[in-house]
Amino acid sequence: MEVTRQKAWRLAHPSRYHAHLAVDRAKRRGEIESQPCAVCGNPKSEAHHPDYRFPLKVIWLCRKHHVRLHKKEGRA
């Protein structure tokens, strides 16, 4: 069975994967809501985890600013 790129990432980064799942579950349960981008206010945003040990402590960023931040942090 072939391992997809997505599955390979999940296996290589379990703490990141579990943090993403935690945010998705919390959003579905209504425990947290997406917020506009913290930089530009774009309503279409995604969760950024400054520290994966705290999966629900996130910064909401649009895709453009999320990618820039990861490049700056060296996690692109």
Textual characterization of the structure:
It is a single chain. The chain is mainly α. The protein has one domain. The chain has three helices and two strands, in the order H-H-E-E-H. The protein has helices at 5-12, 14-29, 63-73, and strands spanning 46-48, 59-61.
SSE arrangement:
Elements: H1 5-12, H2 14-29, E1 46-48, E2 59-61, H3 63-73
Protein name: HNH endonuclease
Number of E-type strands: 2
Order of helices and strands: HHEEH
- The spatial strand order of the largest sheet comes to 1-2
Q: How confident is the prediction overall: mean pLDDT?
A: 94
- Termini separation (Å)? 28 Å
Give the biggest sheet: 2 strands, antiparallel
Shape, per Cα inertia axes = globular
Domain tally: 1
Uncertain parts: none
What is the strand content? 5-15%
Protein name: HNH endonuclease
Organism: Paenirhodobacter ferrireducens
